[in-house]
Amino acid sequence: MARPADETLAWAVREEITNVVRHSRAMTCSITVSRSKSAVRLELVNDNAPPPGPYGNAVTGLTERAAQLGGTVETRRTGDGRFHLVMELPTSDVGTRADVPAP
Q1: How far, in Å, CA of 97 to CA of 52, rounded?
Q2: Which residues, 6 or more positions from 103, have their beta carbon under 8 angstroms from its beta carbon?
Q3: Digit-coded pLDDT (tens) for 10-21
Q4: pTM of the full predicted structure?
């Protein structure tokens, strides 16, 4: 069974990719996941973000889910029109390869 942090990371990728497809004119999108002893970090960057405006339910929901696990979500638009989302969650609830059953 997936741990809550694993589910939250998967949900973040799904939501943000949906936003890229529906709300931007992105030509590129990158997803990077890194892990330290204390946190796992998900970064999603896409070009050609829509103009700044109020965030919809996706970013609000991501922020709330991350906070429930002791994590954070930060978003920003860069000077060159890119949208950058960073989610960090404590590693205490993130699965490892050992958690994945063998096929």
Answers
A1: 38
A2: none
A3: 999 999 998 888
A4: 0.81
